[in-house]
Design a protein that fits this description.
With about 375 residues, the chain is α+β, with helices and mostly antiparallel strands. Among the domains are: about 80 residues, conserved putative lor/sdh protein from methanococcus maripaludis s2 fold; about 80 residues, Efflux pump adaptor protein, beta barrel domain (Elongation Factor Tu (Ef-tu), domain 3); about 80 residues, Helix Hairpins, CATH 1.10.287. The two termini are about 70 Å apart.
């Protein structure tokens, strides 16, 4: 039989060994962090239209600063600012008494020239008859023929002068060249206006606004994307609803200061609700192109230092990416990922670092 002391000693040694083994296991467990639950979203390739935004102003279809057609005193202005006028509607009138007198003088001059011409023709006919009988000389015949030609030329000149005088009289009343709205009255009655040697001889301003145009400046980096016919949505200050249109004119000249180019988008404006001069923001929609798309929630970091996490052997792997905003929920992947990559997401995403153990869950969870 073994002594009691030996048995007690063996029991103590066994207990100590068991406690040491459990302590080692507890130490190992405390060194390994717990795996974090994550989910994945896939990088996909889609045809995406990325709006291009430009800003500008509304301009009228036509704008004319209209002045007198003949020199004289502005006697009557027939329109007010805000008036809508039809084509050929009278706008203002220059004093016409002098022009009426010139018409009367031209009519008298024409009657005189016509009488002289008729007399010259009768003289020519009579001398020609005498010349056939051998009574009139060749010198007399040449003289009456020349006189007849001079009288005929004077008659033509008198007719032209009368037409010019009548046209000047008619031009004392200036009419609208097209239908539109009066947007400015630049002088009042009684002002002496001259048509020559003056760059500001204007009485009223007329705009055609049943069609207006959005003149929009677009950053030059989008020059290759925008074409004639590109659709656009126009948001105009002061108006509740947007307007749809498409690019009609594209100016290939790029402004050196702003590095922007100009596009023009016409808008039907039958009710004249859109006023020239309003600010406009245009969302242009170029043709869709193939783009790598990723959910925005999978991307961490700030501009210039963006990254995502992928799974490698149940560990989180950090990868730098370059992305660009598409909309509120998605970004365009410019570099760092390929179609089909599974990128980690989930509430634990901000806690991930390189090498963090992970457990990928398959159930769909919104967060």
């Amino acid at each position: 039989m073994r002594p009691v002391g030996s048995i007690l000693c063996a029991l103590l040694l066994a207990l100590a060994a068991a406690c040491g083994q459990r302590a080692a296991q507890d130490s190992t467990a405390s060194e390994a962090p717990p795996a974090l639950d994550v989910w994945t979203v896939e990088v996909t390739e889609e045809r995406v239209t990325k709006p291009v935004v430009g800003t500008g102003s509304i301009a009228p279809h036509k704008k004319s600063d209209i002045g007198p057609r003949v020199d004289g005193i502005i006697e009557e202005i027939l329109v007010r600012v805000g008036d809508r006028v039809d084509a050929d509607a009278p706008l203002f009138r220059t004093r016409d008494i002098d022009f009426q007198i010139r018409v009367d003088d031209a009519e008298h001059a024409l009657r005189l020239a016509r009488a002289e011409s008729q007399k010259a023709k009768r003289d020519k006919k009579r001398v020609e008859e005498l010349a056939e009988k051998g009574v009139a000389s060749s010198e007399q015949l040449d003289a009456v023929r020349t006189a007849s030609e001079i009288a005929s030329a004077r008659l033509g000149s008198a007719k032209t002068a009368l037409e010019r005088a009548k046209q000047n009289l008619a031009d004392t009343v200036v009419v609208a060249p097209y239908p539109g709205v009066i947007t400015a009255r630049l002088v009042d009655e009684g002002v002496m206006m001259r048509t020559m040697l003056s760059g500001n001889a204007h009485v009223v301003q007329l705009m055609k606004t049943d069609i207006v145009v959005a003149i929009v400046q677009v950053p030059a980096l989008h020059l290759a994307e925008i074409k004639v016919g590109t659709p656009a949505t126009l948001h105009i200050d002061g108006l509740p609803d947007p307007y749809d249109g498409q690019v009609l004119i594209l100016n290939d000249r790029v402004d050196v200061a702003s590095r922007a180019f100009e596009v023009r988008i016409p808008i039907q404006n039958e009710d004249l609700e859109i006023k020239p001069g309003l600010f406009v923001r245009a969302e242009l929609r170029p043709e869709a192109k193939h783009t790598l798309v990723l959910e925005r929630r999978a991307v961490l970091g700030v501009d210039g230092n963006r990254h995502v996490f992928l799974a490698t052997n149940d560990l989180a792997t950090k990868r730098s990416v370059e992305v660009r905003d598409l909309d509120a929920a998605r970004v365009e992947v410019l570099s760092g990922l390929v179609p089909g990559d599974d990128v980690l997401v989930g509430p634990s995403l901000p806690r991930l670092v390189e090498g963090t153990p992970i457990t990928i869950r398959t159930a769909h969870v919104d967060f």
